[in-house]
Amino acid sequence: MEKRIFFTCGGMQLAGLFHPGGEKGAVVTHPHPLYGGDMHNVVVEALVLAYQRKGFATLRFDFRGTGRSEGTHDNGVGEREDVLAALAFLAEKGVRRFDLAGYSFGAWVNARIGCPDLHRMIMVSPPVNFLDFGDVGPIPCLDLVVVGDDDDFAAADRVQRMTAAWNPDARCTVIPDTDHFYSGAIRELDDVLNKCI
C-alpha cells in the first residue's frame, strides 16, 4: 500500500507516494508537467505496480511545481536534483539497490543524470523527437527501453538507434500498434515490464 509522503529537495517539499519494501527500491518519474504529466499517470502506475509485484520499495513523486510539490518547473535542470533527492529518500528507508525508471519527460530527466550508484535504468518512450538528448552520454546501467511503433514523440527506429548508442547491451522492445500514451496498450506494456523487471 502506497502512502503519501513529502521529502526535501534544496529546501523545497516534494510530494510523493511511497511503498515500503526491502533493500531493492525503484524511483519512477512522470511525463512532462507542462502537458498534464504527473505521478498519477497510467504508465507511471504500470511501472510502479510492476516493481511492487517483484517486491521492490517504490517512490513516485511529482516534480517541482507539479501537484502538491513546491517550486516551479525548471526545464529538466532542477528536476534532476528532484530525482537525486528521491533516491536519497529511498536510501534513508533502507534501500541499498536502486532502479530508476521514467516515462517520456521523466525518461529524459533520468537519462541526463546517468548512473549514480544505480543498479538498473528503464526508459519508457524516451521522447527523442520532442526533447534534446544530445548531451546524453553512455548509460551503462540502462537495461530496458520500451516504445510504441506509432509514437510521434519517440520514433521507434530512432529510439532503437539511440538505445544501442547509450548501451549496446540494453534491450529495446517495440510494442506494435501503440502510440506515445499507450492508449489501449497498457496490458501489453504490463507484460513487457513483468517479464523484464
Automatic annotation (TrEMBL):
Transmembrane annotation, as ranges: none
What are the protein's UniProt keywords? Hydrolase
InterPro entries hit by this protein: AB_hydrolase_1 (IPR000073), AB_hydrolase_fold (IPR029058)
Signal peptide location in the record? none
Give the matching SUPFAM superfamilies. alpha/beta-Hydrolases
Gene3D superfamilies listed in its UniProt record: alpha/beta hydrolase
One GO MF term on file is: hydrolase activity
Stretches assigned to coiled coil: none
- Note the PANTHER family from the entry: AB HYDROLASE-1 DOMAIN-CONTAINING PROTEIN, ALPHA/BETA-HYDROLASES SUPERFAMILY PROTEIN
Q: Return the protein name.
A: Alpha/beta hydrolase family protein
Q: Which organism is it from?
A: Desulfococcus multivorans DSM 2059
